[in-house]
Amino acid sequence: MHGNESAENYLETILVLSRRLPVVRSVDVATELNFKKSSVSVAMKKLRESGHIIVSPEGYISLTESGKEIADCIYERHTLLSSWLKRLGVDPKIAAEDACRIEHVISAESFEAIKQHIR
Question: Could you say which protein family the record assigns here (predicted)?
Answer without folding.
Answer: Belongs to the DtxR/MntR family.
